[in-house]
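Slide 14.
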Amino acid sequence: MTKTTLYIARHGKTMFNTIGRAQGWSDTPLTVVGERGIKELGVGLKQFDLTFNEAFSSDSGRTIQTMEILLNELGQIDIPYTRDKRIREWCFGSLDGGYDAELFMGVLPRIYGTETEFRNLTYEEMANGIMEADTAGWAQPWDVIKERILSGFTDIAQKIEAQGGGNALVVCHGMTISTLVYLINPDIPKQSLDNGSVTVLTYENGQFTVDIVGDMSYRAHGAEVLDGRV
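Slide 15: predicted structure.
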């Protein structure tokens, strides 16, 4: 059986990404710069002759828009495509749409103490802090976040595996991808994932392995092709 590999891309840069607002379950479209970045990614993936059995994204507009660009650039618009709400971004509740700096540099440090650096918080602590600050009651507890993300990706991998293995293309969100990586291998340091970066997982014998996190080489190569530098 061919091994199962998930190529997980973070969506293209959006309006909220550009002005530094927490997007969560709220949504804004890709900017012109964001569309160009995903075009670069699609061209780069195609240059490496990557083909995909199926495509998957969250049900957020920004991931759907990203996937449409990618499949067009890959020339693979006819492969099966599933939208799964389980691989949405974290929900920030009433903090959705607020400025990133206020959430991560203000709200969370105020909850855990002014000397707390939010990057040192565990994902569970971040989830608990967001729930405490959320006045709408929409934010999800850590147990719900980790279960939906892990089950969503496990089902994707098992579906591809049941077909004999191969590659799946997945588009989702920065914190969703980072959380998944942590759940698979907690020893991998946290890192901020760029728009259009690719994280690669393999799935064999019921286990995920993290091969690479936040790879920007596909985008870089695609940019060179589009700019006529190669």
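Speaker note: The chain has eight helices and six strands.
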